[in-house]
């Protein structure tokens, strides 16, 4: 009787071992199936991406995005005009540059109105708008100031600071836009002056060019500090940049 009990116990152990082995095999099979399915899904996703038509990114642009590109193109053309002025000394290139910044401002206003009119906007459009603004209202005004005579070491530092403030202002807006909208879907106020306000500096420099107050004749002359030149007029760029990164709240019209 004891021998039969031992045999039965051995049989139970063998059955349990067989069941455990079967479960292990099933689990391994499931893992392998999941891995194959995941790989097939990735391949399908990659093939879907590769099957996109050429210039698919351009096809995804909304109408407002094309106006934003117009903004960027005008800002770039303004920089080119100032380079032409530095090379030739012909003042009309300064007027062209200032007029192109004005055109960029028009495009910047229109793209927002078009986006609201068509009720179509995207994250890509917002980022595109920020990049265009950096060119047209950050780099271009600084380039106009530099070309008109703000070329001392301290002038360059202030102009660089101005551009850096503009970039920081736009980055902060992109990050906090949702919070500033208070769930209404629309930003009701600006925190810090918007970067397009630098157009006022462009207007000031256009008047200076018209009156011949450029180069060595810049308003307020120049100062020698530590053997390096500072034109006091450049400080308006520093003030403008500081206002951009300030916490001043300006109602959005």
How does this structure look, described?
With 253 residues, the protein is mainly alpha-helical. It has 2 domains: 1-51; 62-251, Four Helix Bundle (Hemerythrin (Met), subunit A) (Up-down Bundle), CATH 1.20.120. The protein has 8 helices and 4 strands. The longest helix has 49 residues, at 2-50. It is elongated. It starts with a helix and ends with a strand. The mean pLDDT is 80.
What key attributes describe this structure?
253 residues; mainly alpha; Four Helix Bundle (Hemerythrin (Met), subunit A); two-stranded antiparallel ribbon
Helix content: over 70%
Q: Can you give the mean pLDDT?
A: 80
Biggest sheet, spatial arrangement of strands: 1-4
CATH class of the largest domain: Mainly Alpha
- Helix and strand sequence: HHHHHHEHEEHE
Number of separate strands? 4
- What is the CATH architecture annotation of the largest domain? Up-down Bundle
Q: In terms of structural class, how would the helical and strand content be classed? A: mainly alpha
Whole-number count of domains: 2
Topology:
Elements: H1 2-50, H2 56-59, H3 63-88, H4 92-118, H5 123-147, H6 153-180, E1 189-191, H7 199-210, E2 223-225, E3 228-230, H8 235-244, E4 249-251
Antiparallel strand pairs: 1-4, 2-3
Helix pairs in contact: 3-4, 3-5, 4-5, 4-7, 5-6, 5-7, 6-8
What's the short version?
The chain has 253 residues and is mainly α. It has helices at residues 2-50, 56-59, 63-88, 92-118, 123-147, 153-180, 199-210, 235-244; strands at residues 189-191, 223-225, 228-230, 249-251. The longest helix is centred in the first third of the chain and has 49 residues, at 2-50.
